[in-house]
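Fold it.
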Amino acid sequence: MNSLRFAPYAALIAAALTGCARHADSNAVAGPAAPTGIAYEANVAAGGVAPAASGKIESPALTPSLAKAGEGLFGNMNCDGCHGGGAVGWVGPSLVDGRWRYGGAPEEIFSSIYYGRPKGMPAYGGVVGTDGVWMIIAYLKSQSTPSVVPTMNYEIGSSAPIASATLDSTPDRTSETPSGPEQMLSKYGCTACHAIDHKVVGPALNDVAGRYHSDAGAAARLTEKVRAGGSGAWGDVPMTPNPQVPDAELRSLVSWILTLK
């Protein structure tokens, strides 16, 4: 559920690109144009800027200088707000543990960043461009895999580790049982930006409840805001739209949030 107001970073990205071109190793090449991506039902364009589509995904040389530029971009694009410092994982999954739901080859990671994924990963291609995405990938690929990789099942909010062999499999949703509120937070990617008792990218959910506890019309307005997205109520970081959440579950989730203390 996150995105950013990206205009202030345009100069930063341009500077990173210029610095990378000036200091890149001799075998570094420019990133190619990106091909048409999959229109996932839950995809959201970061900053409201849809990525362009053309060409073929083909990784350039992932040089140390490209990785250095990507490290700065990873922080300044607030990637660490979900994936943690050093990309070791926080409310979003680790990007350096060698476990990839959608594939860990550079071209596969490119598709995940450029075009986004369901459940909380916006499409950043329209904001940072092809070159910016390759910088971030070079940074991720330059990291060492930790000796302990406690990957968790974010689908159901379980703390039980998932066997690595199952991580690239598509979950069987036909066997899912109805979810309670906290399970729905994980199911629909809310935990990428929100926690119950502390601020992450967005506000703590109990702070939301505290602001609106005496507002009789809050439930209806917040339900619409979660569905349509918006900005300004809690600072400059916009909330991305969430049209994928069924009406009944969305109303139930908002009602539960408003009961938090």
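The chain has nine helices and two strands.
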